[in-house]
Write a structure and sequence with these properties.
mainly alpha, single chain, about 85% helix
C-alpha cells in the first residue's frame, strides 16, 4: 500500500502566529507620535497669532484659570465631573465614529485637535506666569494629563482598528464579543479620565497656591 505524502509543517514566525499584535502596536505608536506632534505644534501656535488675538486669548485664559482655581478650591466630585465632561465627550465621539466605515480619518483629526489644545494651554500657562507657569506645567498639569493622554491614545487606536475591521467584514458580521470588548475599553478610558479630573481638582489648586 503506497504511503500518503506527508505534509510538511509550516513554520510560523511570531509575527505570523500573532497577526493582531503588530497592527495594534503600529497604530498605538502612530497615534502617540501624532498626539505628541500636535502638542508641540499647539505649544508654538500662540506665536502665529496677531497681537489683538494674542491679547484676547490671554485675557480669556486668565479668566478661565481663575474659574478653574475657584472650582478647585471648593472641590468635590461634581467639580471633577464638570472638568472631565469635555474629555468624556471626546471619548464618546470617537467611540461612535469608530463604528462607521469612514471613521479612520476623523479619529486621526480629532486626536490631533485634542493635542493642539493641550499644547496651546501649556504655552499660555508659561506666558501668563513665566517660570512659575513652566513649573506648574511640569508638576501641576502634565502628571495628571498623562492618564488623560493615555486614555485618548488608547481609545483612538482601538477605534481606528475597529473601523478598519468594520470596513473589511461589515457591521452585520461583527461579533457581539468584539463589540463588547471595544466598548469595554472605552469604559476603562472614561474611568481614567474621571480619576485624572478628580486628582487634578484636589491637587492642582494647592500646587498653584504653593507656587504663588
Amino acid at each position: 500500500m503506497p504511503l500518503l505524502p506527508q505534509r510538511k509543517a509550516k513554520f510560523r514566525t511570531p509575527t505570523e502566529a500573532q497577526p493582531r499584535r503588530a497592527p495594534l502596536g503600529h497604530t498605538f505608536l502612530f497615534m502617540s507620535v501624532l498626539y505628541g506632534t500636535a502638542v508641540l505644534i499647539g505649544f508654538v501656535l500662540y506665536f502665529a497669532l496677531n497681537n489683538s488675538l494674542r491679547t484676547m486669548v490671554l485675557m480669556n485664559f486668565r479668566a478661565g484659570l481663575a474659574a478653574f482655581l475657584y472650582m478647585g478650591n471648593i472641590g468635590g466630585l461634581s467639580a471633577a465631573y464638570n472638568e472631565s465632561w469635555y474629555n468624556i465627550v471626546f471619548l464618546i465621539i470617537t467611540w461612535v465614529v469608530g463604528q462607521s466605515t469612514i471613521g479612520a480619518p476623523i479619529i486621526v483629526l480629532l486626536l490631533f485637535i485634542r493635542g493642539l489644545s493641550l499644547g496651546f494651554a501649556l504655552s499660555l500657562t508659561v506666558l501668563v506666569d513665566g517660570l512659575h507657569g513652566a513649573i506648574f506645567d511640569l508638576i501641576g498639569i502634565m502628571p495628571w494629563n498623562i492618564l488623560i493622554m493615555g486614555a485618548f491614545i488608547v481609545a483612538a487606536s482601538i477605534s481606528y482598528l475597529f473601523t478598519r475591521e468594520l470596513r473589511t467584514i461589515g457591521f452585520a458580521r461583527m461579533s457581539a464579543g468584539l463589540l463588547a470588548a471595544y466598548s469595554g475599553v472605552y469604559v476603562i478610558c472614561v474611568g481614567l479620565v474621571l480619576l485624572a479630573g478628580w486628582v487634578e481638582f484636589l491637587i492642582v489648586p494647592r500646587i498653584f497656591a504653593w507656587l504663588g
